[in-house]
Amino acid sequence: xxxxxxENLCKTYRNGENEIHAVDHLSFSVExxxxxxxxxxxxxxxxxxxxxxxxxxxxxxxxxxxxxKDIYALNDxxxxxxxxxxxxxxxxxxxxxxxxxxxxxxLLPCDLDKKSVPESRKQEVLQTLxxxxxxxxxxxxxxxxxxxxxxxxxxxxxxxxxxxxxxxxGNLDSKASDEIVSLLKMSNQKFKQTIIMITxxxxxxxxxxxIITIDDGKIIKDEKNA
Amino acid sequence: xNVLKRLTxxxxxxxxxxxxxxxxxxxxxxxLIICVAGMVTSFQKTVLESTKKTExxxxxxxxxxxEEDALALPENRNISDYYLTREIGxxxxxxxxxxxxxxxxxxxxxxxxxxxGILVAEGRYPENDHELIVSNHVLDNGxxxxxxxxxxxxxxxxxxxFDGVTLHQNNPFQGEExxxxxxxxxxxxxxxxxxxxxxxxRLSYAFENYSAPGYTAITREENIRNSVNAFLLYKNPRNxxxxxxxxxxxxxDYSYNQEYLRFLGVSQGSTMRALYNVAAxxxxxxxxxxxxxxxxxxxxxxxxxxxxxxMLRSVGATKKQIKKNVLYEGFLLGxxxxxxxxxxxxxxxxxxxxxxxxxxxxxxxxxxxxYSVPLFAIVLSILLGSVTIFLSTIFTARRASxxxxxxxxxxxxxxxxxxxxxxxxxxxxKLFSMGGVIAYKNLKRNKKKYRTTVISIVVSVFIFxxxxxxxxxxxKMTNVYYMNLSYNMTIGDGLRNKNTxxxxxxxxxxxxxxxxEIERFSLxxxxxxxxDPANLSDFGENVYRHLGMNPEKSEIDITVxxxxxxxxxxxxxxxxxxxxxxRRKGILIDDWQEYYEKKLYLGNMxxxxxxxxxxxxxxxxxxxxxxxxRSDKRPMGLENYNAMDGILIVSDEVMDTYFHPINAVLYAKxxxxxxxxxxxxxxxxxxxxxxxxxYNNFEKMVExxxxxxxxxxxxxxxxxTVISLIGITNIFNTITTNMNLRSKEFAMLKSIGMTKxxxxxxxxxESIFYGFKSLMIGIPLGVIGSYLIYLSTRxxxxxxxxxxxxxxxxxxxxxxxxxxxxxxxxxxxMNKQNIIETIRNDNI
Lengths: 226, 844
Description:
- The structure holds 2 protein chains of 2 kinds.
- Chain A has one domain: Rossmann fold (3-Layer(aba) Sandwich), CATH 3.40.50.300.
- Chain A contains 7 helices and 10 strands.
- In chain A, the strands form 2 sheets. In chain A, strands 6-7-8-3-9-10 form a 6-stranded mixed sheet, sandwiched between helices. Chain A has a 4-stranded antiparallel sheet with strand order 2-1-4-5, with helices on one face.
- In chain A, helix 3 (102-112) runs parallel beside helix 5 (144-156) and helix 5 (144-156) packs parallel to helix 6.
- The longest helix of chain A is centred in the C-terminal third of the chain and has 17 residues, at 174-190.
- Chain A has helices at residues 46-54, 76-86, 102-112, 119-129, 144-156, 174-190, 202-205, and strands spanning 2-15, 18-31, 35-39, 61-66, 69-70, 87-90, 162-166, 195-199, 210-215, 218-224.
- Chain B is an alpha+beta fold.
- Chain B has 3 domains: 3-44 and 271-482 and 705-840, no CATH class; 57-256, no CATH class; 489-697, no CATH class.
- In chain B, the strands form 3 sheets. In chain B, strands 1, 2, 3, 4, 5, 6, 7, 8, 9, 10 and 11 form an 11-stranded mixed sheet that branches. In chain B, strands 13-14-20-15-19-18 form a 6-stranded mixed β-barrel. A two-stranded antiparallel sheet of chain B has the order 16-17.
- The radius of gyration of chain B is 36 Å and the shape is globular.
- Classes of the chains: A alpha/beta, B alpha+beta.
- Chains A and B meet through helix 2 and helix 3 of A and helix 1, helix 9, helix 10 and helix 12 of B.
């Protein structure tokens, strides 16, 4: 089943005289339960693509369908609500709220939605992430890897249609990186979670089922990982 | 609880310093609002209570009503209460005051006794129609010896003039002169016996005016029916004049309790209205300035939480949720700070009034300051406080809700400026080196944050200038009303008998002026010079025209006054004219003001210039010339002397040589005016020559005036202190948080090798840049504000506008010192910080 469909997506930045096509007429689709890695050099437009997929930025033209919904046809507030229910985002710099503890940070999207999370789901996620003993810690009391785990927890807590990860290992050493990507892989397999991950690290990309390579805002390679 | 609410609470408790600062801002502004409202109501209550005591608690009086109309009063829906009195009549008593030979007997019903300004000095109120309470004026002025418990028998009748007209209290005694054939008499008298059960203070002017011929004595009567004076209290005093006219129905005379209505704020051009206007302006200023203080704190908190809001947005918080979050923060603060502010405000009023009562206990009789904080003032301040908080948060809330996830993720903050605009004039680099350049770029780049600081200072400067000119005007207002007099007694001799010669009067006054109680005096003797109307200035001609007179055909008489040698000498010295030649000249004081068609005109009546010769006629038709020196400074005794055609001060010598004085008054400054009064009283009683002596004691009046000035200054200075406090909280808040926000950037500058000295210099330059800019905006605004205050206070009293230069200079000094101190404080804190830690520290 198709969960993401991108049609003719464009994002153009204007810098004085020059137009920069960060995303240039991109089209592709992702099946439910797929783990896709998008790789490319710095400035290739992969982060812009991810923001467009996540509904935090708006495209110049083109459409993005998630779960058959044209997300850019929604107004800002509807998009925000869609985002907290259907999309989980993991950032390179974690973007946790410093004054909320681990559990509160993880539950944030549900709380915003005024939805309660069943205890079993909470435990399942905490166990998966190995954070059971740290639920009342504040972000600055955790290591980088642990902080990233919290942001993974936040991204997957309410079973979104799609998890987006923007260089999730960019700020971590190789051991922690392996752990994080393994976790992503595990949630992909265990919860059938669709994941799109951006990285410039080919070693990390190998964990994915499919690797899309982008350069100058265009797909130059799209291959299944063996 | 909702996670956003939890977040807000945690943020508030984590940023304690700012929460407290914002809280203080709200507390202060609520407290101020309630203070201003409470002060006005307390002041009003105080003056109302004291006028009720002395003038009586009624709105209007209908005189001499017939029985059927008086009986209709209880049915009138507009009347909330009424008291009845009637005139019983006059009885001759052995008074030594020949102008006041009667006891004036009134019958009051019980309510009237207690509500018409009777202050019992000794004894008690009468309880039936055989008992009397007598004005104690009859003892000390009339010299009649009555005692408590005395039974007196009086022949009471009606006063009738020689030609048969009935006379009342407002008709002075007729026929004082000994051989007068037109003396009034008492007719149809009736004998009655009363017991004196009490003495009261002399009634106010409305009941017994200065020329009233009878000392008031009151008995108690119920069921007053005939020729009733009805004193009315209306349910809605606002319509007092309409109601009164309806009741009087063109049949009866009526009068109003002017003082009381004035302080109720219902009569036209009333003092209370001017006060209300002022209070409204002040409250608007408080709200505007508080909105800025509080808004600033919220704006700063948003900038700090910028990233957090972006993050919340990216995980799916709606705009509405973010907006609600900011408003909730305001709500929480208000929930604590507004009640606290109200408590503080009420406490402040109570303390202030306790202090006032303590200070003024000995100064004023019968007046005790009362506090009154009506419910409406509390509701008003809750409402206004909430409005203040709402206004402060709503803009910020909107701004916060507009933060998009992508902006926060890219963390490109609110720096939205192009490189071109950051170009720095070369002169700055030359003058201030690199530190100056960075300081300048900082201001340019960070316009928004910079603007909040500038606005805070601008608002404070504005308030300071506007309010200090308010104080100046306030003092001018009291000075117009309560001018300081250089004398405390005026003494004159009645010119009632045509046989009395002015020379004789002057001799009498001279004798008195030698009394040891008198420290300083001016014995003014006056005559007139008749001058040609051609001497009038254009202004002077207009004054005549506005009075409906033809200036060319009017008699223009300048009053010539000699002061007595001692005072004349002193006056010349004061003017710096102390030399022999000037003693032959006349000093012309001809400034005049008229209020014509709602406009005030000020000017000089004559066009003659300094050192020119004034020509006129004296002693009926004798030519006279004198050189004139112009002045607007008045000598002792003539401070309030009003003469439309001006006054000319001359030496005694000139007066004696050319003039024949037609009037003389002694203005005396006595060490103890009350003692002098007693002495004059004895002199008058013992020496028939001084029988017609009259005198006014200004000591008590002046005392009251000074007290009022003192009270007003206590109120105003208290107010300006709190307003300045708000300003300081405001500026402290913005500057310190601004510095905090930029601590990372500062740490970076230091890490790439900026020395401490360079760094401090940079910060100092930055402060100078925005101090300067703030003053450039704040001062003109303050001047406009002070002009508005002038306009609003002017509705009570006329005065001219003056630029508040002192306040402007003070503001400049104040701002420089304050910015300097706050900068120093933040710098010392910043220099203590560890560079690396600051750079690393993402969590403020």
